């Protein structure tokens, strides 16, 4: 039996009929056509499907769409305004070579969003633990850590600098 | 991967949830964090016909102190346990364990109640709850009842919960001064289940003897295991290296691990021994702090 749900995604409210077994990630990608959120493993391991639900980072391959009823969802598409300046995290990833193929990037960005909201000035260790649920097959993580440090500095009003890429 | 079809119910009260559980019986499953159940449903290892989502029932999510006891609501998320100042004050072991359970996103969803109710000896909370001597509160059609942690785990994925029971709270006695606790598990990578895990809570008396001790073991037995012989050898005794070594030896002998990709039986037994020693030392350090 389908269920009616109302979800707010990146500020826009949607009322939809969904099958209870529909996963939140499929609602986002296939019903709402927001394909920035990726599916890597489909087994709660890789973090590519990470989004925010009421401000908390979660793996949307392991939550039902019906469970998002009444909740606010943020996906990577909502990080920066259309055509506007990049979000400090996006800028950090761009400036510090925080991505190669980019597959993990939306999940990394959304996870890092909550990390910095909880802890605006994390240590390197805290960043590494903070992104421990997100796998990246390309970068070796070092440049991702730098990208998040860059965003942290920028969001706190501390001067930032781009770094040379670090290859490992 | 898509689960088999099911009917979804989202009751707003415990009573309503229990009525649904009574109505649907074995065909229903409670959904809390969903981070054990949904992966199993996606793999079709579980195919309940009805899902009773308890996430919208108020009053199941809290951590508070009441009359010498810390109460943790069944629906409390791992991330809330991880950052609770109250738990940090009395039970540093919860800081140790939550950091090692999966990853931040999983901890934002997974609940302590679900972690116990799942009845999986690979999960980390069962051993910790044994070490701190927790009591599980179950609410069913006849009201609320207490289940001591030692009577909670039955068999493979089996607990003392009836199909009509909701795990509503976990109660942990606040230990006296001079108590310390610690948990560690050996894991291959973040998010892995334990190769072996050991939870210890101990109390030192004025003479430095061990007046009380709880030791729980993770993923080295078909059901979560209390290392009873190890506790016995230390209770009321001085914590000499000799006694600690004996406790470690008993724990490694009394568990019953199975060989898998994480290691052989011999390796796991050896690691239990190492971890028992380390966790006792760490708990003593904290007890003295
Ligand atoms: C990638 C990944 C890594 C993980 N790593 C670890 C780890 O290292 N250590 C660890 O301990 N766990 C780990 N887990 C499991 C995780 O902690 C689960 O969240 C937990 O085991 C189950 O809690 P839940 O709230 O998600 O329960 P659910 O998945 O919702 O439910 C699990 C079972 O318990 C029942 N149940 C749930 N709540 C109640 C209740 N209140 N009353 C009665 N029955 C109930 C359900 O019906 C179901 O049968 C991992 C999970 C994933 C996906
Ligand atoms: S797709 Fe969800 S964690 Fe990998
Ligand atoms: S940039 Fe390719 S997976 Fe991370």
Task: Please supply descriptive tags for the structure shown above.
heterodimer, A: 168 residues, alpha+beta, Ubiquitin-like (UB roll), DNA polymerase, domain 1, 2 domains, 5-stranded mixed β-sheet, 5 helices, 15% strand, B: 289 residues, Uridine Diphospho-n-acetylenolpyruvylglucosamine Reductase, domain 2, Uridine Diphospho-n-acetylenolpyruvylglucosamine Reductase, domain 3, Enolase-like, domain 1, 3 domains, 5-stranded antiparallel β-sheet, binds flavin-adenine dinucleotide, binds FE2/S2 (inorganic) cluster
How does this model look, in words?
The complex is a heterodimer of chains A (168) and B (289). In chain A, 30% of the residues lie in helices and 15% in strands. Chain A has 168 residues and is α+β, with helices and mostly antiparallel strands. Chain A folds into 2 domains: 3-78, Roll (Ubiquitin-like (UB roll)); 88-155, [2Fe-2S]-binding domain (DNA polymerase, domain 1). Chain A starts with a strand and ends in a 13-residue tail after the last helix. The model of chain A has no long low-confidence stretch (mean pLDDT 96). Chain B is of the alpha+beta class. Chain B has 3 domains: 7-53, Uridine Diphospho-n-acetylenolpyruvylglucosamine Reductase, domain 2 (2-Layer Sandwich); 63-173, Uridine Diphospho-n-acetylenolpyruvylglucosamine Reductase, domain 3 (2-Layer Sandwich); 180-288, Enolase-like, domain 1 (2-Layer Sandwich). In chain B, 35% of the residues lie in helices and 26% in strands. Chain B has helices at residues 14-24, 37-42, 78-82, 85-90, 92-100, 104-109, 112-117, 125-131, 228-234, 241-254, 265-288, and strands spanning 7-9, 28-31, 50-53, 63-66, 69-73, 135-140, 143-148, 153-155, 158-159, 166-173, 179-186, 196-204, 209-218, 225-226, 237-238. In chain B, a hairpin with a 6-residue loop joins strand 13 and strand 14. In chain B, helix 9 packs antiparallel against helix 10 (241-254) and helix 10 crosses helix 11 (265-288). Chain B is globular, with a radius of gyration of 19 Å. In chain B, 53% of the residues are buried. The interface between A and B is medium-sized, with 30 and 29 residues. The complex binds flavin-adenine dinucleotide and FE2/S2 (inorganic) cluster (2 copies).
